[in-house]
């Protein structure tokens, strides 16, 4: 039974939801940890609760279960960033009036001794472009899945990805293109 | 494309990917998440058990039942699989709670909406009766009835004032961002206007322009209910639900909705 079918079954048999928790927690936790650090431990439970409670809203037309789960995680993350406690993160890049928490990500990259050139290059990207790039590079999502998560047309996601790659290439002064795993060839 | 031997490129991408590496969560973190989900499931079961006391009418989505039975179901929320278009029911007046899962008012399959125009939002008003035409082109997760309606995150009575660009990523049904002037909020919102995703305007049961589109235009007055796409606040990435949960306005149905959401 694939993930889409498990979600369907979980409507009448909630225990069918449990394999999803087991199978996707590591990826969702990584997504959260890359953006809010240790707070990911607390947020992961919130994500799964939100996903369970809204599982009837999963719409396969808009992408598979994996993309939907990341969409829920992103929603929980943005809600977290809107909370008063997020005031400490002021200075984050505004995206549609929302702090996207980039400063927090940047701090983590710095702590992990990521190259300053890479950090600068990422910081220079438009938030929307960067979000697509990182969903593809870090979460191993396809551009189409990223589009579903961000509720943008797939073509827009692809153009954002292309633009982000180009800017990174210029900034890092290396020739390159998106590697094969960042294309839309992977089945979802 | 750069060849696999392009070490510069590979290094740049690898550096980006490596920069995103994190430690896997502690087992206790996943265990806590699982416990939270099980708790929510138990709460849900308790709620369902109240059915036997008469406080809550049982229902089960057709597609979910099929999935539970092992059928190869293409999941979707409001779960339209587009396999078997059914005739629009005609819900005039209060719904009658009948046996089983389906509860509708009036006789199902009686009237097509009185569509006065087809496509082209803004050119001619479209006003019908019952479920929004075209939105029934699906097999739905939930039957429309008083209880499932009451469970929706938001509900309002409004008039379409704008039909925007596609709201989704090339979805088969081509959602649009539709803006309403809200006449009355039943649940989940406030304010004079609201924009949400809705399946694209077409001609519904009567037309030819769009196989799956719904019949509406600027000026169409609808009773709309739905859910936030990702959960959360009612109008976060709000999506109007088809399958009877979005209907053409009429006084009797509006009165019924008012009673449901009171």
Describe the structure.
Chain A is an all-alpha fold and 188 residues long. Chain A is 63% helix and 2% strand. In chain A, helix 2 crosses helix 3, helix 4 packs across helix 8 and helix 6 packs across helix 9. The longest helix of chain A is centred in the N-terminal third of the chain and has 19 residues. Chain A is globular, with a radius of gyration of 17 Å. Chain B is an alpha+beta fold and 262 residues long. The longest helix of chain B is centred in the N-terminal third of the chain and has 23 residues. The N and C termini of chain B lie far apart (61 Å). The chains are: A mainly alpha (188), B alpha+beta (262).
> Gyration radius of chain B, to the nearest Å?
22 Å
Class from helix and strand fractions of chain B: alpha+beta
- Number of helices, counting only DSSP H or I runs of 4 residues or more of chain B: 5
Give the CA-based shape of chain A. globular
Major sheet summary line of chain A: 2 strands, antiparallel
Low-confidence regions of chain B: 1-5, 51-124, 168-173, 203-212
Beta content of chain B comes to 15-25%
Mean pLDDT of chain B: 65
Strand content of chain A: under 5%
Low-pLDDT runs of 5+ residues of chain A are 85-98, 175-181
Question: What is the H/E order of chain B?
Answer: HHHHEEEEEEH
What is Rg of chain A?
Answer: 17 Å
DSSP helix fraction of chain B: 10-25%
- Helices of chain A, by number, come to 9
N-end to C-end Cα span of chain B: 61 Å
- Give the CA-CA distance, first to last residue of chain A: 14 Å
In N-to-C order, the SSE pattern of chain A is HHHHEEHHHHH
Briefly note the structural class of the backbone of chain A. Answer: mainly alpha
């Amino acid at each position: 039974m694939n993930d889409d079918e498990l979600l369907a079954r979980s409507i009448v048999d909630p225990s069918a939801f449990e394999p999803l928790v087991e199978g996707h927690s590591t990826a969702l936790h990584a997504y959260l940890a890359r953006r809010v650090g240790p707070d990911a431990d607390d947020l992961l439970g919130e994500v799964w609760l939100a996903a369970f409670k809204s599982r009837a809203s999963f719409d396969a037309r808009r992408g598979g279960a994996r993309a939907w789960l990341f969409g829920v995680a992103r929603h929980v993350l943005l809600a977290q960033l809107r909370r008063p406690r997020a005031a400490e993160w002021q200075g984050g890049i505004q995206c549609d009036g929302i702090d996207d928490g980039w400063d927090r990500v940047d701090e983590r990259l710095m702590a992990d001794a990521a190259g300053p050139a890479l950090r600068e290059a990422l910081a220079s990207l438009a938030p929307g472009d960067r979000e697509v790039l990182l969903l593809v590079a870090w979460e191993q999502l396809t551009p189409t899945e990223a589009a579903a998560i961000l509720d943008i047309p797939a073509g827009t996601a692809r153009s954002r990805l292309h633009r982000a790659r180009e800017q990174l290439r210029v900034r890092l002064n290396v020739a390159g293109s998106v590697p094969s795993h960042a294309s839309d060839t992977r089945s979802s | 494309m750069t060849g696999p031997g392009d070490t510069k490129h590979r290094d740049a991408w690898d550096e980006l990917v490596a920069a995103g590496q994190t430690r896997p969560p502690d087992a206790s973190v996943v265990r806590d998440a699982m416990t939270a989900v099980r708790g929510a499931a138990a709460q849900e079961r308790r709620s369902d058990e109240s059915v036997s006391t008469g406080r809550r009418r049982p229902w089960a989505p057709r597609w979910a039942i099929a999935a539970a039975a092992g059928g190869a179901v293409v999941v979707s929320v409001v779960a339209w699989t587009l396999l078997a278009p059914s005739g629009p029911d005609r819900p005039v007046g209060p719904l009658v709670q009948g046996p089983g899962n389906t509860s509708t008012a009036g006789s199902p399959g009686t009237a097509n909406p009185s569509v006065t125009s087809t496509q082209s939002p803004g050119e001619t008003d479209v006003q019908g009766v019952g479920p929004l035409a075209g939105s029934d082109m699906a097999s739905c997760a939930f039957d429309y009835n008083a209880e499932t309606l009451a469970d929706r995150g938001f509900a309002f009575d409004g008039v379409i004032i704008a039909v925007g660009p596609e709201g989704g990523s090339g979805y088969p049904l081509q959602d649009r961002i539709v803006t309403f002037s809200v006449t009355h909020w039943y649940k989940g919102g406030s304010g004079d206007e609201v924009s949400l995703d809705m399946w694209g305007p077409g001609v519904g049961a009567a037309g030819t322009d769009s196989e799956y589109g719904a019949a509406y235009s600027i000026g169409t007055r609808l009773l709309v209910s739905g859910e936030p796409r990702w959960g959360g606040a009612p109008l976060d990435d709000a999506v109007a639900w088809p399958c009877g949960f979005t209907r053409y306005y009429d006084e009797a149905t509006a009165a019924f909705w008012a009673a449901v959401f009171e």
